[in-house]
């Protein structure tokens, strides 16, 4: 059982380039989220999805797009990379059917992105 | 303004002692509060969850308290070990908040010296 898998683990981009960060989970969780983690800022929610075909914005959505065509996959697209998007990105999933534990997040190992 | 704060400086303790980490918040109404552990280069891992009407939860050497009057949670690790060294994050699950939207603190780095 792999849990949440993120690829790539590391990426360096030039300003203006686009790329997609991949996230897949094998726990059949309906809910998935993307966070970024910056020093002194904590984890901040970028976008989230409550099921296939349904996405919504989090706290810091600008410059990012998401889609959710299957339960398993939730890719994050950087449209035109900027140095301010240098960060560590985490994908997470949670199970909304688990009662009081429904918002417990299961995180991937992260993607470390540098934008030059 | 809304804030969630954890000890900004690293906490250094001796092996065998009890580590106590704090999580303070203002202008939030959490229904639940969660604690996570994060090791370098890894994603956070869930440890414990406590509900607003629960004063204390325990799991093995871990204990969490939640005081909604003080707007504070304390996270204790008893008989600490060097393997407990990591960053610990608290997260608020808000009342009436959209499902799957947690507010995370910045984390406290714990270093347990042998």
- Using CB atoms under 8 Å apart, which protein chain pair has the greatest interface? A-B, 29 and 24 residues
Number of helices of chain B: 0
| Helical/strand content category of chain B | mainly beta
The fraction of residues in strands of chain B falls at: over 45%
Give the overall shape of chain B.
globular
Low-confidence stretches of chain B: none
What would you note in describing this structure?
The complex is a heterodimer of chains A (116) and B (114). With 116 residues, chain A is mainly beta. Chain A is built from no helices and eleven strands. Chain B is mainly β. The N and C termini of chain B lie far apart (41 Å). The radius of gyration of chain B is 14 Å and the shape is globular. Chain B has strands at residues 3-6, 11-14, 19-26, 30-38, 45-51, 56-59, 62-67, 72-77, 86-94, 102-104, 108-113. The interface between A and B is medium-sized, with 29 and 24 residues.
Keywords:
heterodimer, A: 116 residues, mainly beta, 7-stranded mixed sheet, 4-stranded antiparallel sheet, 11 strands, globular, B: 114 residues, 5-stranded antiparallel sheet
């Amino acid at each position: 059982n792999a849990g949440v898998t993120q690829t790539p683990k590391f990426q360096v981009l030039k300003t203006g380039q686009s790329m997609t960060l991949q996230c897949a989970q094998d726990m059949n969780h309906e809910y998935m989220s993307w966070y970024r983690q910056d020093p002194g800022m904590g984890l901040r929610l970028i976008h989230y999805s409550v099921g296939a075909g349904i996405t919504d914005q989090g706290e810091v959505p600008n410059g990012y797009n998401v889609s959710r065509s299957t339960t398993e996959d939730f890719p994050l697209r950087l449209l035109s990379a900027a140095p301010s998007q240098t960060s560590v990105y985490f994908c997470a999933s949670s199970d909304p059917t688990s009662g009081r534990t429904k918002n417990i997040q299961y995180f991937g190992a992260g993607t470390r992105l540098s934008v030059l | 303004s809304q804030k969630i704060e954890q000890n900004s400086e690293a906490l250094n303790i001796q092996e065998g002692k009890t580590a106590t980490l704090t999580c303070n918040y203002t202008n939030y109404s959490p229904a639940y509060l969660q604690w996570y552990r994060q090791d370098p280069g890894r994603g956070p891992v869930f440890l414990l969850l406590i509900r607003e009407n629960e004063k204390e939860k325990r799991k093995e050497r871990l204990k969490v308290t939640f005081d909604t009057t003080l707007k504070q949670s304390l996270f204790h690790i008893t008989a600490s070990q060097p393997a407990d060294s990591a960053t610990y994050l608290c997260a608020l699950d808000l009342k009436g908040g959209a499902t799957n939207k947690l507010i995370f603190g910045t984390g406290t780095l714990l270093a347990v010296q042998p």
